[in-house]
Amino acid sequence: MLSVLTVPVTGSSVPGPFSGSVAKTLPRMIAVLSNPIILSAAPHPTSVALSWSAATSAGGPTVTGYTVDWSPAGTTNGTRRVGNVTSTIVGNLSRNTSYSFQVAAWNSQGEGPFSPIYSVSTGDVPGAPIDVSVVAGDTNLTVSWSPPSLAGVYPILGYQLNVTPDNGTPLLMPNVTSPDTVEGLIDGKSYALTIRAWNEVGWGSTSPRVHAIPLGIPDAPENLSASFNTTDGSIFIAWSPPILLGGLALEGYALSWTTSTGGVGDAYVAPDKLNYTIHSASPGAIYSISIMAQNSLGESAATMVSVLTPSGGTAVAQPSMWTQPWVVLGLFGGILTATFVLLGYWKRSRDASPHAASDPAPAPEAAHDSVPTQSAGTPPG
After folding, report:
1. Topology of the domain covering 32-121
2. pLDDT per residue over 181-224, tens digit each?
3. Fold type of domain 222-347
C-alpha cells in the first residue's frame, strides 16, 4: 500500500510521496507569484541601492515581501528579506567589487521565482584633481588641471569649478573641461579656485585651493578736454583718471598730438597730474590730441580730442559743434581774449592685440550666476 506523507510548507499541507529533493524545492514549485525585475542598482563605495518592479500573485495570497540575494556574499550574509517594498539598500559590501543581485517575492504559500541576475560593481568616488594651475588675464582667469590619480572603478563624468572671491559668494561652474577660462572677474581682486570630479558613485575630493588675481591694462582716461588761450597762444589739456586701473598701480599718461600743418609732439605725464599745457601753439592749425593711461602691463585705449587754433586771432567756426571746439570771446581786465571750448570728445578703440576694442568692462560679481549648460551628464545632488 502506498503511503502518503503530508509535508508542511509554510503554513499549508500538500499530500504526496516523500522525497528529500522534492521537499526541498516544493515551496517554490507551489508558489503562484510572478518574478520581479530589477530596474536599477546604484553603486556606492560599500553599498548598492536596488529597485525592482512589483511581483503579482495569480489568484493566490498577495505578496508579503521580497527576498534579495547577492553574491559574492558580503561580510554579514548574502540574503535579506524585506517587506512589501520595491527598493532597498544592500550595505556592508566590499569596495570596488562586482556583485550579482536577484530578487524574489514571497507570500504565505512560499517564495516565487527569482528575477534575472543584475550585476553591478561597488566603487569609490574620484580622488582630487592634480596639477591645478591658474593663468591670470584681463578680467579673467584660465584654470588647468589633470585627472585624479585615483579615479576609481567608474569613469569620471565631469568636473566642477569653484571660484570664490575674497569676502564674496562662491561661483559654482559645473561640467567644465581643462583648461577653462572664467570671464567677467574684477582686475586686482583675489580669487580662490578649487576643482573636483564626479562619477556614478558621487562627488570626489576637492583639490587644494589656488589663489590668483586677474590683471589687465587700465581703462582709457575720462573727460578729455582742450582749450586754446589767445593771450599766450597755449593749449590747455585736462582729463580725469581711468575708472578701472587693471588691478595695478597707474604709472602715468602718454600724451601725443599732431597738427594739420604737419607738426607732431608728445609728452609723458606723471600719474598724479591730470593736465598739460602745449606752449606756443601753431596758429591756424587743427591739433589732434590723444592720451593713454599706462601700467606695468601696457597702455590703455586712447581718448582723443581736437582743437583749432585761430589764425591771426580770428575765431573760425567749425562745421559741427559736437565734434569741433568753438571760440568764446570775453573781456577780462580790459583785455579781449578768445578761448576755445571743447563741446565733445571721443575715445579711440584699443588695438586688436593683446586687448581687443570690444573687451567689456569688468562685470559685477553675479555675472556667473547663470550656469553653463551641462554636457557630460547630471552631477550628483
Report:
1. Immunoglobulin-like (2.60.40)
2. 999 998 989 999 999 999 888 889 999 999 999 999 999 999 99
3. Immunoglobulin-like (2.60.40)
